[in-house]
Amino acid sequence: DHIYLELVTESGGVKIYPLDHDTKAIPVADVKLEGKMSVPRKNKAEAVTFAVDGDHFVAKVDAKGAHRYDLEVTVTHGGKPEKLKFSVEPQ
To answer: What is the CA radius of gyration of the chain?
Structure first.
């Protein structure tokens, strides 16, 4: 409700850009991300660790050869946590 996340896939991982409602960049120092990924038909979710890389976050994600995985992200900005879920098709 109070923040947008733009997700960009890359080989072996993702980049996430935090944006406000005017699609302007939010400083990564003002944002905290926690995540987990799960592959369809597998019952176990794995933690995803995000690192700051300039104006965005990066994370290594191993889809284990699956054609799709779900990435659940909890983003905290301004003291307000919000959960988002992405269905990602690796490149």
So the answer is: 13
Q: How far apart are the C-alpha atoms of 56 and 33, rounded to whole Å? A: 11
Q: What's the half-sphere exposure (Cβ side, CA atoms, 13 Å) at 84? A: 17
Contact partners, residue 91, CB within 8 Å, separation at least 6: 9, 10, 11
Which of helix, strand or coil describes residue 42? coil
Q: What is the mean pLDDT of residues 58-71?
A: 90
Classify residue 73 by burial, with Cβ atoms within 10 Å: 0-12, 13-18, 19+: buried
pTM, full prediction: 0.90
Closest C-alpha among 38, 9, 29 to residue 18: 29
For residue range 7-48, list pLDDT tens digits in order.
999 888 999 999 999 999 999 999 999 999 998 877 789 999
